[in-house]
Amino acid sequence: MKCRMMAAAMLFHEDKLLMMKRSMSRTLNPGMWAAVGGHLEPEELSRPRDACLREIAEETGFAETDIEQLTLRYVLLRNNQGELRQQFIYSGIAKRTDFVDTDEGELHWIPVAKVLDRDIPYIFRAALEHYFREGPRDHAWVGTANRDTATGYPRVDWVPLTDPRY
Questions:
Q1: d(CA 67, CA 121)
Q2: Which of 1, 4, 55, 128 has the smallest number of CB atoms closer than 10 Å to its CB?
Q3: Count of alpha carbons within 13 Å of 166, Cβ hemisphere only?
């Protein structure tokens, strides 16, 4: 099975979330609304936070010092036609709101109350819905994408990522 690893960030500033309306020329989810992020480079495979920071810098111009409390919130797993997709989603607080232009899409600060009104890939939508419902916790969550047997629609099953020591 081929593996694709990605890292993304939910960056907040006050009551807004930074989202990207992806360019129509993008391979994954063209024209949809997503988080800032991208693929891990080979040297980043054991350091998804570094990949996340690199992607943030490339797509926004934000340095690590422009972000507070960058914390792993989700590890999402999905089998996409025989390709295992593993996505690390972090949340953080942006200290500033100005950003650079990127050819990957258009960046916008979206009021949190209006975020879910957008066309969002289902796995990221599931993470957002879960985060808005559960809020930040002391642990990250693992989400596995499945198909609901009753409805036939995609769903994500959540489990806390905690140390199993007794």
A1: 25
A2: 1
A3: 0
Strands (E), 14-153: 16-22, 33-34, 36-39, 67-80, 83-94, 105-111, 140-147
Q: Are strands 67-80 and 33-34 parallel, antiparallel or unpaired?
A: unpaired
Q: What is the pTM of this model?
A: 0.93
Q: Return the C-alpha torsion angle 64, 69, 70, 72, nearest 10.
A: 160
CA distances to 59, 125, 149 from 92, in Å:
15, 18, 35
Geometric angle at alpha carbon 88, from 84 and 89, rounded to 5°? 135
- Residue found by looking up tokens 């969002």 in the block: 120
- Give the Cα separation of 48 and 86 in Å (integer): 11
Measure the CA–CA gap between 32 and 34, rounded to whole angstroms: 6
Q: How far apart are CA 129 and CA 131, in angstroms?
A: 6
**Which residue's entry shows tokens 């596995």?**
144
Decide the pairing of beta strands 105-111 and 16-22: antiparallel
What average pLDDT does range 131-135 have in this prediction? 96
What is the pLDDT averaged over residues 114-134?
A: 96
For 155, the enclosing helix (H) or strand (E) is: strand 154-161
Residue 2's beta-bridge partner residues? 83
